[in-house]
Amino acid sequence: MTETKKQLTLFEAASIVAGLGVGGGILAVPYLASSLGLLQIIGIMVLAYFSSLLLHFMVAEMVTRDGGRLQLVELFGKYLFQGRSGVVYTWIFFALIALTFFALLAGYLTGCADILLHLTGLPRWAGELATYVVAAGVVFFGLKAIGISEKYAVVGIAVVLIILCAGSFGSPWRSLPLWAGWDKKTLAFYGMLMFGFACFFSVPQAAEGLAWNPRLLPWAIALGIGLNFIFTLVIALMTLWVSKEVTIEATLGWGETVGRWALVLGAIFTFLAMLTSYWGVSYALAVIVKDRLRWGDRSAWLFASFPSLLIAISNLTGFLGFMRIAGGAVAVMVAIQVVPALRKVRKAHAAPGPYFNLGFWGGPPFQIMVIVAYLIMAVGSVVPVK
What we know:
The chain has one domain: Amino acid/polyamine transporter I (Up-down Bundle), CATH 1.20.1740.10. The protein contains 14 helices and no strands. It has helices at residues 10-33, 38-66, 72-79, 86-120, 124-139, 143-167, 184-196, 203-209, 217-242, 250-258, 260-293, 297-314, 319-348, 364-382.
């Protein structure tokens, strides 16, 4: 994971933010939205976007006020886990983050393997191994390599999505009601959206890459989550309108309905989406491990990536199971930690400085709103949907 250059452009930083969340949320959202109406889908997505954006801005303020050098685990350890038991709490939190990230990464490997199995009949374990080699290989070369890879992958996702949409206009479209009843999938839909927009562990990486112009950080965050919003909305609506059967991994049902060419493009889309998320999550974990354990780049990279392969091959649960379990765990941890940590960072760095400041939007009412939004996400992440 040798790094010779860490400076990122605005779009590279935004792509890192987008890439961390784009893989899981996009592919699972249409299945969870299949019992909702158009206005419900759009309304819940807008609510999720702004709730998520507010939390990420809080993380950005916390990171920049402290100097922009520490990851979230170390920031929580510095400002939140204090006193005699603080060291123990920090290690417990580190262990929980590591386990959660392992589940996320295993989910991305499993999702890609499912696509390979469906298209080629390649054994699941072989698909997971092949995906791991490609995904972990980019992370080995560090932040700049990830930024460039994420940038081109995001562009590729957009191009594939445009082609898929254009080619689907010749297919019969299903009608979608403006409003439908509420059921248990509604909470699950919201929870998966919030998970897909959850890119907060990429904020320190974006801050590091944009240290040459910190004023770009909130723009990178808004653009990155905005890209996730657009991709997710298009995939959800097109899948619901076109697919004869809305599958758990959206592009499968969409591609089978439109034709073989769409299935192939859907597979490309899936791989790009999964890879971007794997790169972002794996790199974030590698940096967290490096800071906490004081390991070298290669050891931290191996620790951050290899366990996910073992978990995926063990076939503990499917793609949706990995995504929802990990998303709920992250929601609880973030909701509990970010707001009180931000309040302490503000007290420690109260003097004006060259950092991002939420101002009115970071006050107590909005802090409460963020906590509630993520606790609801946690509930949505464990609601049974089958």
